[in-house]
Every structure is written in structure tokens, then in C-alpha cells.
Protein: Vacuolar protein sorting-associated protein 16 homolog
Amino acid sequence: LCCSDLDADTADKEWLCEKTNMERPSWTIIFVPVVGIRLRLADCYANTVAVGVAVTTMSTGDWQLLYERYYRRRHLYDMAWPRPVQLSAASRLVFFEAASFGGPFAYLNLSGPKARPEMQIYTSSGILISSFSWKHANLLKMGWSNDQSLVCVNNDGRVFVFSIHGDLITQFTLGKEASTHGLCDCCITGDCIVAVTDTTFELIYFHGIGNPVRMPLAQPDLHREPPSSMVVVPGNGSPFGVSPSFDALNSPPSSPTGAPPSGIIVIVGTQSGTIIKVEESSAEDQMLSGGPFVQMALSPDGTRLACFGASGTLHCLTSDFKRNIFEFGTTSAQAPLQMAWCTNHAVVLTFEHHILLVGELGYNFVSLPYDTPTRIAPEIDGVRIVTASTCEFLEQVPKSTESLFTIGSIAPGAMLYDAAEALEKRIPNADENIRTIIADPSVVKEAIQTCLHAAQREFDVRLQKRLLKAASIGKLFFDTSDNADGPDHDLDPDLIRNVVQTLRMLNTLRSEGSIAIPLTFDQLEALTPSVLIDRLLQRNQHVLCLKICEALNLDSKRVLLHWAIAKVNQSRSDVVSTQHEEVQLARLIVKRLSIVPSMSLAPIATAAFRAHRPVLAITLCDNEKRPSAQVPLLISMNEEERALDKAIASGDTDLIFLCLQHLRRSRSHSALFSMLQTRPLAQSLLIEYARQSGQMDLLKNALYALQMTRPAANLAVQQAYKQEHLTERLKGLQLAAQFYYQDKRDPFWGTSADDQIKLLQVQSRLEAESATATPLVDRSVSETIDAFLAEGKVTQASKLQQMFKVPAKRFWHIQVQVYARTMQWAALYALVDGRKTPPIGFAPFVEACIANGNLDEAVRYVALLPDTADRMEWLCNMGRWKDAVQVAVATHDLDALRTIQSNCAEPDVLEIVEKAIKRLS
Structure:
């Protein structure tokens, strides 16, 4: 029975039985497809005969075969434009640019009647995200950066970068040449801008949108003619900023020839008909014919280049120009409005009322008619087609889907899917297909992976569920114990769960509404979930981002941080909040962010301060748990005293120093020292810092201001003695004396400072008056007296002794030392001549004589010692044995004689000692 448009559901079977007058048949009805429509093979009733043909609900009638590869159009959305849009690419006054990876559309119509046109940003379903007035004339080109910022380049070289919400992020110019000569063409690829100046036709290359930097680029010889077309090959080879990701069950893209370029490559089509390959240091003419090429497009993997010649011929060649892949004649007198690749194997050309899809090697093509103008948005795995009423996705049918749903497929995946469908229908012999594949675990694994791979690449939720159910049934029959390849080839137990989580996320993104991001699985793998979250955060989809983080086990810190900052900035233009409202908002933010213990509140507080909400900022900062983030933030908010207290509480000396340095710059000394009065730790650190760094003025001022008079006086003394001139030194000592006298507990130090000042003054005067050979300044009182006595100036020495109240005993000691050192033996003896006992005794005289090598003079003073034992000890120590024997004999000291006998080695002395001992005995 040939049926052209049946889906084999219950109504179809009832209709078929009625038309054929069949009553309760017990055989299987096979629906034979026509015009390429794949129909379900199913039983009408029980007791059916099993057949080995795949059972499916997918329609394959819209599949188009182009050189062994199937392509299909998938309906994504019915457009919900809030106002009519003009999508004709033929008009130079209508700008339409779509961001990659299912991103938004930017639309600007300069041909309308409005005096001030609007830049409009839409979702893929036509829902308005934002709009703003376009105030700049002469727009040349629009594009989207890698971080989904809208980049607008004017003819005069000015570049404007807008957020997805229409906020101006930054603006800059493309150099002096662009401003002087203007621009005639421009390419925006990722974060690269390559422009061509007008009249001079020089290439200008800027890298980076947020922080643009001009990069070197060789200049091609265009013979003073504008380029016919231009395309940029980024450093990684992919025009999408990332390399496309393909599953192992899908056909891998062709490998690039040669190593990937380290910098960008600009491919320039010339009016003479050739192509010039421009790099940083070279511009190489490829010597091609068939041009001039009015359109060029780079494949997603960057290995193939499609060029459309003015003669209507499509040329496809490798991007390194080593091989010409194919040529395809379109017989079109007009150039295509747009040209892009659909994956790496087909080229899409758009014309006014149809789209031409040219297959690999140019063997065949498909023409897709459209009633209204279209715009295409290339993706890594297909092309989005936008019209005034719909948004579609043109893609290559994945190999997994092809193996599952191709007519008559007996692939393991198709058999598994067929069996799962039969089991759902409760067909008695439904397990026969499973029995054919469970004998080999590797076949079962292949079937499961095929079903999962196909489910990942489907948009229809019902079909996703059927494929997942088939994979789940296959997993029940997968026996790892029979796997001969070992545990490395086992099936990941979390594979199905991970696929389900990913599909739930993708289905949510694709749903119509404020999100409407028709992201495919391959696009998600290339984009990565982290970048996807960044793009969703730009649209303030915080709840969805948190769910994605939870499902994929990703860190949710940046999501919460973005939410909090958005919450703070949300009311910037509102009426000024009360202090209570600010505190309440801070509590809400702290509560929500408490689910992440290590979450920092510093960036949020910074945003609040910039939003002119100081109460909110300070409240948030007070809840920041990390002093290293809290203290600098308080400083930036001019809350220095609060910052200092937080730093002191943390005990981190580096943070305290940071506060002190900032306070030194922002506060006067008096204000700074006043603040430190009640903060002893900060006082100590400031003083130590000033001392270690040699900032004596700071140290002196700090000590004085903090009423540390004793340390301040000590410092003044140190500074005074660093002065070379005596006058400056005296001033420093006078200041030290003032500090010392402020300490009422111990007046000794003040008196000592005054005495030192007086001594310096006297030394200076006496040095000038006496013309002594020895400098006197900076000597002590004793050293000064010593100097005068050494020169025989006893009178001056006596005056100093009286002036500075030098004790008599010290003065005697000084005289003894000086006279003995200078060999003034007569003067030395004059001190004791006629005296019974000097104030210091005779022992210092003996010691001084011995120290200066005059033992005879020492014996003279030993004789004056009143104690016989002392005389004996000194004489023995000096080795004056005969004198010692005389003293011992004179005093009848038998013990002393025996001591001399045991210690003396002189024979004549020993003989005298023996006689004396006998006589005394």
C-alpha cells in the first residue's frame, strides 16, 4: 500500500482498514515511503509478524542529499518582531548582524523616515532585548566580538562598542590614517578589526576590543584600487574564535594543512582578479584567475575558502591555496547577497528570493525558495536563516541520525530504536531485534551511543525522549562482564544522565521567550558551558545560570556575584534609598551569597560605592570576611579610619602599613597622629617604619605628637650627632633637653643633656683659646681633663674639674693615669709627696707604674703601702725577690720567707732566704 503522507498513527490505521475493508487483520502492514518520506512500520493488532526494518516517527522527506551527505532545514521560531523589519541585504542602508552560537541579532535601518534611527537588538525569536538611538552617521560595518559585544565601525574610523543592553562600553579610532582618509571596507572577526583606508587602500589591523592595540600587518599592492572582497583568518584558524567540536560518530572535518598560523591572515581579493594573502610580514599574490571575487567565505574549521567570481562562478579551494577543490557555475548575473558555509562541506549563497546550497565538490545543489528577503547567520555546524516570519536552521544531518532513520537501515542503533518502539507498543516478539545485537556488547554499546548522539542533536523533545528511552533499554542489556575489550571499553554509567542534563539545559535555552538561544550540542561543546554562562549573565538570566551550574557541577560564584552587582546597579537611577532600605538590601545580598562560604563581597561593595550608595557599600564591606579585600576597599571609599581599625583587628602588619601610608598621603600630620593616639599597635608600626626607613623627621614628629618624650629626646640626640656643624648639633641637643625635661619622672636625662651642651661649648672655647694640639670637641669631661694634663695644663684641668663637678677620686685617677702614661714621674710623685695617704690610696700609683713599664718607680710606691702583706704581694708579683726578702726579714715573717723560697728560682736569693729562715727559726 503506497501512502504519500501518512504517519502510521492510530487514526491512519483505522482509516486504512476502513478503506480496504479489512477486519481485524493478523498480518503486518508495511507503509512503503514515496518522495523520500520515512514512515512508521507497525502492526495494526496483535499476532504480527516481525520484520527487520527500523520503526521510526521521524519524517525524512525534507532531507536533501548533496554528495553523500544529507542536509535539512529545522524550523526554530515564528518571529515575534514588535515592529516591521526590512531584511533585504541588497540595501546598503539596512544593517543586520547575528552573533554566533545562537546569539542575538543587531538591526539598524537607516532608510526609514525617522530622523534618528534606532539600533535594535533581538533574540533569535525576534523578541526585543534592547534598543537605543543611533547618533552616529556613516556606519560602515557591524559585528559581534567574542564576548558578545556589538562592534560598530564608521567610515571615519571611529569604533563604538555596545553591550547587549545598548550601553556604550568603549569607543576608539582606528588610527590617524583612518581618520584622515576614511575607510572603504572592514572585517570584524572575533576580537580583530581589519579595515581598508579609502583613497590609499592601506590595511589597518587592531586586536582586542576592550583594550585595542594596533598590530603590524604587511601592505598588499592593490594598484590603488579598492579590494573586491576581504576575509580574515584568525590565529586559531576558525572564524568563530574556537575550533569546532565534532562527535566521534560524526564525520570529522578535514585537517588543516600545515601548522596553524601564529597571527591572523587577511585574504584580499583584488580588482585585477587575483587574491593576495597578507600576513604580519609578507603579502603574497596567489596568482589566481577567475576573479575579481566579489564574495569570500571561510569554512568553520578554517581550511577551505569559498570565492564567488564576478562571472557567476563559485570557486572552492583550500585556505592555503595549494589545491582547487571545485568550481560551480551558477549562471547568475548577480553576485549573491550573502555567502557562508554550512559545516565544512557545503556552501550557502543567498539571493533575493532563494537560497542556493552547493554540495561538496560541486556535484549537485539545492535551491530553497523564499517569498521574502532572507539573512543568514553562519554557525560552526550550520546556518541560521532569518526571514520576516521565521527563523530556521540549515544543517547537515548527523551521521547518527542518518543511520537511525534512513530507509531500511539495519545499523545497531536503528535496531535498538526499532526494538524500543516495539516494546512500547507491547508487541509480543519485540525483543527479536534486541536479541540480534545483545550477543556482542560492543554492538550494544555502539547502538546506545548512536541513540544518545542523535538525541543530543535533535530539537524535538518528543524525539529526544524516544531516543533516550531506546538508549536506556539498550543499557539494560549491556553486559560489561562479556566485554572482551576490558574495563576501558565499558559504558560510562553516568553517560545517559549527563546527556539528559545537557538536553534539559539546551531545551530551556531554545524555548521561546526572553531567552530563545537555539544552541546545538556541537555549538555548546565549542562554546563551553563557562562561556555560555557568561553570555546568559549578560542578559541577567541568573536563575537559569544557577541551574546550569548545579546541573553541570560548575562553580556558581560568578553567577551570584553578577546577580548581586546587577541588583546594586538596578536602582541607580531610582529615587535615593533610605538608610534602612540600603541596609535591608545588603542583608539580602549577604543572605543569598552565604550559600558560598568563600564568596567575596568586595566587588559588590565596590559596585555599590560606584553607584553612589555609600551606606550599602560600607554595610557590605563590613560583612566581608577577608581583611585583605576589606581594607583596600574601605581605603578606596575614603573610610580610612574604619580601614585602619579592620587592619588592626586582623593583626596583619602589611594591611596596617597600607593604611598608614594612605593616611600619610591623605591626612595632615596632626590629624594622623591624633588618629593614632588610641591605637598603640599602629603607633609602634609607624615609629618602627620611620626608624627602619631612615625618615627621622617623621619619626621625630610622631614621637613628639604621640607624647613619647623619652624616645623623642633620644632620637633628637641621634640626629644632633649626625650634624657636622657644632651649631646644628647644639640645637639638636637643646631640643633633646626640652624633650627630656617633659618627662617629670626622671630629671637626670635633662640635666645630662644640659651638661653635654655646656661641655661642647666649653670645649669649643678652650680649643680656640688654648690652641691645643689635640681636638677637644666631642670628648668626654674625663678625656678633656686628660688632654690638658698630658700637655701640662694643670690649671685648665682643675677648672674643668670644678666646672663639671668631677669627683676628687676620679680627678686623682685621671692624674695618675696621665702622668704615668706621659712619663711625668716627678709630677706623679709630687701628688703623694708630703701626704700620709692620698684619697685613692697608693695601689693605683703602683698599677700605673707597672702598666707603663717602670718597676723601679713602682717599688717606690710599694714601700709607701701601709700593709706589709700588700707590699709583699706587689713585690712578689713584680719579681722583686730581694726587696721582698728584706721586707719579710724586717717584719720577721717566716711564712713570707717560705713563700718566697717556693716561688723564687734565683740561687742567690734562695741562699739569703735559707739563712734568714734558719736565723728566724
